[in-house]
Amino acid sequence: MFAKTRTINRQYIGKDIQTVMDIPDLISIQTSSYESFLQSEKLQNHEAPANQGLQEVFTSTFPIDSPNGDMSLEFDSYQLDAENIKFSELECKQKGLTYAVPLKAIIKLVFLQTGTILQKDIYMGDIPLMTDRGTFVINGAERVVVSQIHRSPGVIFCHDKGIYSSRIIPYRGSWLEFEIDQKKELIYAKIDRKKKILGTIFLRALGYTTREQIIRCFYTTEEMPVRNDSSSREQLVDKVLASAVILKDPESGEEKRLFNAGVRLHPHDIDDLVANGVKEVCAIKFDTRKNPGDKDENNDSLDSQMIINCFEREEVRYVKEGSVDMEPTKEDALAAVYQILMPGEPITVEAAEKDLTSMFFSERRYDLGRVGRYKLNKKFDYKDDVKDFTLIREDIIQTMKYLIKVYIGDEQVDDIDHLGNRRIRSVGELMTNQLKTAFSRMERIAKERMSLKETETMKPQDLISIKPIVASIKEFFGSSQLSQFMDQVNPLAELTHKRRLNALGPGGLSRDRAGFEVRDVHYSHYGRMCPIETPEGPNIGLIVSLAIFTRINDYGFLEAPYRKVLNGKATNEVEYLSAMDEDKYYIGQVVEGMKTDGSFPTDMISCRNRGNYTQRDPKDVQYIDVSPRQVISVSASLVPFLEHDDANRALMGCNMQRQAVPLLFPEPPIVGTGM
């Protein structure tokens, strides 16, 4: 009846390749993400939870103030009532129930006029619990929430269809885009993909009201003497004024504007300056570098006339007849912006200013998120890290400046398929976003009830409706595109399902619109995403698997581990690098025959940098791979002699292993891979 177990005489081919780290916990992508959402360990140890996950959902909604300002609902703390879990995991499977924990929150109702405080422990619904295996039991069936890979918030610069453009993408809020008109050399702003508006007009609407202010944001200036000799004239011709030239009548004290800021000086203008006795003018000091791409530490000035061209364009389009200083006012600019945002609405300057300010600078309507702010700080090299999760005016100036530098060839465009510009939303973050929308519905209901009921008889539990929360959780686990019935054909299928990354789903791509580039293998996938394991058919490249050693950092970016190389010898110190950081280094491959002290067997080793492969001296290499199998996923690492396989067949092999039915009497494979 029982099959005889064979003893296989194993030969280990790769035994002389050193291993410096063990394979990590393969389902930690699920378990650690959900733990950071619930923070149950901190609650058990009576520690204050960090402002993330459930805590962030509560703090972003509360306090809820009544419309007339006489009372306020405040959040104190939340608790997961683990003692009152009705059924165990197994019972839930047998009875077709959901394995969940009751969520309770301490809510205070504060009457602001009398100072009375009513406090109540309110049941907020059941939160599904994750099993030790990284799954959820929903209505008796095991389900997995697949992680989503999406475009990271932050700023991105691209050159598409011949147009240079930049986008500031928030986590939540309006998109702000800039694009360059190459024919006329002008820069335009766009809000939420509506009609475009001249860049300098947009800056005026934000409060940069004069040409001088705008010029000082983009250029450095210098004082230049005005003399009636040929050398002085030569220096002044074609210079652009950084400040207006104003003449003062010594007797009446009246001021007369001779030239505006942003005016290009012609020979006859210099005659006017000399005739009026002007001794010196403030001019723009354009970039002084010899070659484009050189960095001049002392001069951060733009080497482009684009902003000046915008001033000249303003005069044609926006300046009213008989205007004294020939430039549009802040009111003109606000009216122009408001007309594009709200076409057909009557324009009031106050409403326009309030609307524009709240659109980008108010926490209620705009959120860059931790990731977006981190990306902006990194891109623009801010000296002190900015902490605001909304935009600041400096971000807008820097984005315009950087885009012009990209256009003139001083900076590079970004690659949107690079893993430095794509990040992972795991189950905890997806759940946080789902609950935030539910809580904002609950907030609306609470405000309505506050204005309808008698104040005297009111209690906290009368104001809070948990229906939207319960419905939202049910919808997320029951019918979201990312909550899937677990693939349980064999243990490999189960593990692969939990380590899958999906580019589809809410806020992601759609199958029909995804082009070839998004689906293709990119050099930054090395050690982070498997180049082999992906479905055939319409989803190819949109659904992928995590590589074996990869981990997700605090910002949601994938990191790969590498061994540090010092003085040409590999150390046992392992460092995790994100795709952005990895671009700065030369990274060697694991080679056979490495000595125990970490020295390399050959004088030159093969290494890579940004997708280029070269041979280099080990002393010029900063890191080497941890293991030859760090490139691939768990499924691919079970294919023997993978490196001799054709890529298409290996892809099929990976996918078919997951469909194999387990044996009644398991046997060891004749050829193993050590996995």
Tell me what the structure shows:
- This protein is of the alpha+beta class and 675 residues long.
- The chain folds into 4 domains: 182 residues, Rna Polymerase Beta Subunit, Chain: C,domain 2, CATH 3.90.1100.10; 162 residues, RNA polymerase Rpb2, domain 2 (Dna-directed Rna Polymerase Ii 140kd Polypeptide, Chain: B, domain 3, Alpha-Beta Complex), CATH 3.90.1110.10; 66 residues, Molybdopterin biosynthesis moea protein, domain 2 (Alpha-Beta Complex), CATH 3.90.105.10; 73 residues, Rna Polymerase Beta Subunit, Chain: C, domain 4, CATH 2.30.150.
- Helices cover 29% and strands 22% of the residues.
- It contains 20 helices and 27 strands.
- Strands 21, 22, 23, 24, 25, 26 and 27 form a 7-stranded mixed sheet that branches. It has a 5-stranded antiparallel sheet with strand order 8-9-10-11-12. The protein has a 4-stranded antiparallel sheet with strand order 1-2-3-4.
- Strand 21 and strand 22 form a beta hairpin.
- Helix 1 runs parallel beside helix 14 and helix 3 runs parallel beside helix 14.
- The longest helix has 26 residues.
- The two termini are 30 Å apart.
- The mean pLDDT is 90.
